[in-house]
């Protein structure tokens, strides 16, 4: 009955950790109510919502340590002892010398009920020996005792279970509150429970604080705090993990904490052979019912009668909200006893009623109840429930529930039939996520090979349009490896699986190998689909095969072109052919693109043409054909006017972001990239491209280096089938950050993987973003010879391609090598040529970089006389809004001791912050470390330390946390 006063419960920590989320407003109200003085506070919430934890958090803090803290809990028993909660609370009263001298004699009555206090209280009046008199005097005696203690908090928990004597005592205390008493009671808010009627005497205060379950957002916050310091939990798993925890716990904090406690133990366990424990999502599912949740559920169920238990069994097997009449029929319980049983379950917070619908509060409670149902009885109830739902007639037949019930009853074929039909309906309605999930279940659960093959074909088709996880891929591959599908069906499944792997879950190589395995089966059985598969295999990727292998499949597909008669297939193949040629800078791409201008006869043909135009816009932009890319994009938008495809709409959005980035149209670009990142988070390559642009804008426009590095790394990690822009741009920007910070070795590490991929694929036309900065990094690390070899390979590999961006980048690389060899005049001439090339391509940032490098060469030779060139570049960067680049140029000028503005004396601003100090203060307020600030503002760490010290001195700040913006 008794618990330690104001402790921190298992699985929870103080408010700085994972245990106290979403309760700060309630905690502020409780603290405010306690500060005011005497009063009554009722903390109400359903079982498990955290009423006790809220009280723990407030009274366990440092604000009220000198007060007397007393706490008791009303017992949950059929016949509790009178005043048991009050007695257990008063028994905690610490010994204080001289206390009896200040107490009236009536307080001695308390010692008759609380033996622990008998020797510390005055002798009770003789009449108190009469139980009736003692009961009458007890409220006055407790009130007098509490009044003698000064500032006191008396907490009585689960007051809805209080016995009559305790309620009479509370009524007396509330009506005549001692001056220093704060009475706090916790109360369950389940329907049908008695609500404590409280009143406060004049001058006292009565406050009610409602504690609700967590919202999904609060559960997400809790899960993210729990995951900190657990390397087994990947960041991309957190949203799904938070959703699962919220679903299973119903947002009840105690259940969520216990669930993650058990999952954490499973995560930390490995096999005896050194294998790792399960993934976090599997660990949460495998955790079952946590022991604390199961025990609490058993406590709430203990007083229930037999009819209530039968209703609980029926609800656990049915596992869906149902009216009392359905539960009564399933439990074979007469209507009136069934209604009384449901009322009892609701009052005990075992079930929840939402209007006429009754269900468990959360899946964990349902699992705890189902565990108590014997297997044979559960099977009988399941079959009975399925028959009841079949004839319910109050809406569409709940096929998924029927599938579960039939399967649980041993009727596997009936269950699978319901499952597949439910998936078919979901796919027809456009709910591809649900269809994919149900088809996957059917494949996994079907014991018949022929059934698995049929369903796997549907699954592979549907999963392309949903967010398919590893379980989907594993299910389809198991069918391919073990069930020996017919050749045509096997080829079709592999082709669809390759698209799933390409777009969503796997790597580019996995996807390409899968489509390569599909082609032989399709060639023998379906040449049209084989030609389409070859067109898919022709699309190159920096993460995939060497480019020549893609060209091989492109040529093979051309040989089958005459056998393709279906207009939709012809449109899909034409779009892929044009895309494949453009991605590698093949001059034939322009003619291939014109084939997409032909008339179309169906919406599917129009969608494929629009897809082709959008892909061409992406590819042309990366190659340096910005004007043509915008034309392609306009055609794509026109083609999408009469159709709806979220994927193609997202492809258009990301193409616009990339074109805006290259073209220097940066107003609002960071916000637009952020919106697109969030909007298409279920499609990895779209998310990655939008996140890349967001990271580039964070770096150059916002000067926010830590946020930029995070986005650049996430973009590189997220992309599944990069066609040459995401990985190269991410690596290049990251390397530039390292170079500016004086870390050429780390800059080399940043580009190494991308250089390896380009060398493997021979996709040198994709190197324009990364190779110039790679040459700088390699030269800075003393590896100039390797830089020369890379530039030679770049020149040879891009010589015959129509890739003007590669030509301009090659010119920059040659200039950098000339500068490294001390041939300054040649370097200046090449950089002037490169700047002109970039300007013709409408790439202002690249042009400004070339001009900046030229200015650096001239500064090295002519010193301050050459400063004008750098100052002109600074103005270009300012017009672009490139804050980080402006700061880099200013640092370059400072290194050459060139002062471009009047420098005020240190005291010129008095107590006001200088503009530079305001910039530093802004980043300090954001919680940035000095190194991060130095990278963002392109300063040395030592300079930042001086700025921070002056800011703190001017603001009389005792720590960085006290720094404020002016």
Shape: flat
Which percent band covers the strand fraction?
A: under 5%
Q: Largest beta sheet, briefly?
A: 5 strands, parallel
Fraction of residues in helix: 55-70%
Number of DSSP helical runs? 45
Main sheet: strand order? 2-3-4-1-5
The Rg value, from CA coordinates, equals: 36 Å
Distance between the termini: 55 Å
Low-confidence parts:
1-18, 271-277, 902-907
Structural class: mainly alpha
Mean pLDDT: 87
- Report the count of strand segments: 7
How would you sum up this structure in a few lines?
It contains 45 helices and 7 strands.
Question: Explain this structure to me?
Answer:
The chain is built from 45 helices and seven strands. It is mainly alpha-helical. A hairpin with a 2-residue loop joins strand 6 and strand 7.
